[in-house]
Amino acid sequence: MVWRAAAISEFSNTPPRAVSVLVSTDSDFESLVSGIAGANVVVLRSCNYPTEVAGEVLRRNAIRIAELPSSLDRLTIFDR
Hints:
- The chain is α/β, with parallel strands linked by helices.
- The chain is about 40% helix and about 15% strand.
- The chain has helices at about 1-10, 30, 50-60, 60-65; strands at about 20-25, 40-45, 75-80.
- It has a 3-stranded parallel β-sheet with strand order 1-2-3, with no helix packed on it.
């Protein structure tokens, strides 16, 4: 459901200068990313740690995440 809503509202209607990146702990998004044009996904794999740690993982990789929409890769996976 989240994936469909993101595809319909966000990824398909994003203004040219705005970029959307979906962050999830659900590994299903790894296989689904190829089915949605313009989708950029970050998966936090093995996310059995507190939200504060997940936030730190995202902050530590902020540049890599920001570069995701302009890279050939549409999926980035962080283990921790």
